[in-house]
Amino acid sequence: MYTDMEWWAKIRLEVLRGERSKREILRREGIHWETLKKILEHSEPPGYRLKQPRPRPKIGPYLERIAQIIEDDKALPKKQRHTARRIYERIRQMGYEGKYTQVREAVRELRRVKQEVFMPLIHQPGEAQVDFGYALAKVCGVLRRVGFFVMVLPYSDVFFVMAFERECTESYWEGHVRAFEFFGGVPNRISYDNSRILVSKIMGPRERKLTDGFLKLQSHYLFREHFCRVRRANEKGVVEGVVKFARLNFFVPVPQVRDLEQLNSKLAEMCRQDLKRRLRGKRGTKAEMLKEDGAAFLPQPAVAFDACRKQPTRANSLSLVRFDDNDYSVPVCYAHHEILIKGYVERVGLCHRDKVVAEHRRSWAKQGVFFDYRHYLPLLERKPGALDHARPLAKLNLPECFDTLRRRLLTEEKTKGEGTREFIRVLRLLEDYSMGRVRGAVEKALRIRAHSRDAVLQFLLPRFSWENTAFFLDGRQHLRLVKVTKPDLSLYSTLLPEGGVQ
Fold first, then answer.
1. Using CA atoms, how far apart are residues 299 and 187, in angstroms rounded to an integer?
2. Is there a contact between 216 and 222 (Cβ–Cβ < 8 Å)?
3. N or C: more exposed end of the chain, with fewer CB within 10 A?
């Protein structure tokens, strides 16, 4: 059996080389004269060709109206555009008598041919694009949606991905800082979409009023910005593609991690591994192309960018300050004082006059209260009656030796009436020493039945061994001028009683 092309070529060879007559071929193959004519005119089967469009008497008069509806829809949100069914219902009211299938095919064809055509762009070294995407991840056993920051260098196609709790000013700041560290420099020009975190007002096709948060970042790193036109994400199409690539390759299967810190460690490693890839049309691997990109980078500033949102406030009577709808504690000595809150992605720093007085792990939930029990121990010493009802100590699981110490302090005669205060003084040692060290000291004190703060402290103070030590004059050149006379050992005999040694 011949294939279509073999049959076609066989007939052409026999006739055009004069080996068989046309009449003989017609009789042998049983084909029509017009078919043979077509075989001889074309070196390969031309396929079915429609000389003129088929008439469409029912849908034809309405095609122009359908095209107008599709064109008008471009100015509307995607979720409010006409479906083929809705267009069918509208033109039926205009007198259309055909079937829905014709309308559906007409809509599909019109939308296909009216799709936008894009100009291929060239990307210069030292340029970057930024976007934010979302994906599912199982964090601490809970499946939830996390955001991820993406910065890509279109020239080398090197990218950096980092996950965050949500898209906010701090996450953009931290993402930029980490990306610049990963790339080894600062891109000259960075393209963005019109996120409200970056743009406070759109004033024209290209004019933007930028947020203070973005301006602080730009002022520190000195890069130039480029914002896409509204609904023109294709102007940063490279990063749009990388967001999709990261979601399909880095978040499939769904990552199961202890926390976002572990997830970001995995994402950073995947970005490093991706540097080994060689893309179609590139001269080298991504790592090699990054060197060319880096030649156009701005240098990293000498001073690191402090990627935190700063908020001045005042600690209240409960020694708490509020940030991002959560309350965090400060030492009670700073209650009613002015506090500067520094909100980072992972932590919250609380400062008074440039001094960090407290630090907490940041919570991305709402209406939470977060205590450091050590902040309230000085107040507890003044108000010992609150020991059993103090909220900051409610979740403090003290080792069993502390309960034993407290019972003995409350029952001993010498500490009667002051046992609770003395126990609180022991707890205050936790302000300066770790729980493990204090526990060990308490256990040692209990073994010798020494039930006091001073006794416990004796087992915490460092004990130095002076054996095998020497004093050197290195760095103490002034001591070389000091002259020490030799002692007269005979003077010690005056300390002995008469008659010599007894």
1. 9
2. no
3. N
Burial of 100 (0-12, 13-18, 19+ CB in 10 A): middle
Q: Are 216 and 170 in contact (CB under 8 A)?
A: no
CA 248 to chain CA centroid, Å, is 17
Is residue 465 over pLDDT 60?
Answer: no
Pick the closest to residue 380 from 367, 368, 396 (CA basis). 396
Q: Which of 175, 184, 151 is CA-nearest to residue 291?
A: 184
* Tokens coding 99: 């079937």
| Euclidean distance between CA atoms 450 and 277, whole angstroms | 68
The pTM for the full model equals 0.71
Q: What distance in Å separates the CA atoms of residue 121 and residue 297, rounded to the nearest whole number?
A: 20
CA–CA separation, 166 and 158 (whole Å): 24
Q: Tell me which fold the domain 127-294 belongs to.
A: Nucleotidyltransferase; domain 5 (3.30.420)
Tokens of 309: 């949102």
What is the distance between the alpha carbons of residues 352 and 157, in angstroms, rounded to a whole number? 45
Quick: pLDDT tens for 52-70. Answer: 777 788 888 888 899 899 9
